[in-house]
Amino acid sequence: MMDQGHLLSSRTGDVDVSGIRRAFQLGARLENPINLSIGQPHFPVPDALKDAAIDAIRADANGYTLTGGHDTLRDSLREFVRDDLGWDTSGGDLDVMVTSGTSGALVLAAWALLDPGDEVIVPDPNFVIYPVLGPMSGATVVPCDIYPDFRMTAARIEPLITERTKMVILNSPANPTGIVLDDDEMRDIATLCRDRGVILLSDEIYDLFTYAAARDDRGRCPTPAHHSRDLLVVRGFGKNYGCTGWRLGFAAGPSWLIQEMLKFQQYSFVCAPSMAQHAVAAAHSVDMSKWVESYERKRDMVVEALSPLTDLAVPQGAFYAFPAVPPALGLTGTAFSESMLDHNVIVIPGGVFSARDTHFRISYAVDDGRLAEGLEALVSVMS
Ligand code: PMP
Description:
single chain, 3-stranded antiparallel β-sheet, 14 helices, 12 strands, 38% helix, globular
């Protein structure tokens, strides 16, 4: 007889099954539901990337790549980082590496930086992997409450920094709120973390989905990388190009940290999927602006429908909105989301992303017709 309780690590008890999957399972009993729960774009991978992936497979580029990524991709990322972050990697003090999804970069950073007893500050509400980096590394996760405007500012982070703080995780454009910090806010956070000797991890996986009003004067996503080099930027290809299943991201940061992350990659993920690395080498020159504009219009549809009915911080990027459940309904986020299943609509309870269960997340990465139907059902319940 196997004694599971004895065999399983104590950290398994600290990790719950993802609430997103649970909401999805509940929705699975619905026939043709209006699914506003999915955290990925609804557009297909651009043909140029599909063709490049198929060509790579046919050209037998199916073996391991170098741990840090295939040379062509790594070089194109160095160029991209120079243009977009203003980081010159040729001096040797900064570097980039290819990772197995943005999640891969987060886990490698946690392994390389966090010991039991260390503290890592994360936003609340947050992307579901951040709190689990605690049990994975033994570190303590310190939530930074960013209700009700969802801006994780230096003023909110500062009082949480102790001598045990090793890392602050910032996410802009944000999941689940769509909030984008501006350049001044980025500068203040970068300065605070550098002055206090804490590594800032900037998760910029939704960088491409930064809507017009929130872009910086270069027309791009504001990033703390413009104000400091003592930080780790992680980005991905999955959301930007609709290839979440290809598991591809990258990290850029100080070489001393990238070197240690590479060590752990070598003994865990080994390398990111080879055909996907070949496929995205030219991705940054693919024009995705029509999709970004279409998502900005979908954002407008959501705001127009829901903001008269409840508190809604206007999303400035990503493809999520995080409205409050109207207090008059007297429902938690979980009860509200369950009640929406009766209307054939799947949304995710705020409690999945937060210590509070007062809001719900909508992903509006669906076609306009389905979004309009979903919003109509939400409006009817919320009014
Ligand atoms: N960071 C954030 C904020 C996310 O929302 C996600 C995916 N939902 C990830 C990281 C992980 O992305 P990937 O699929 O590239 O691992």
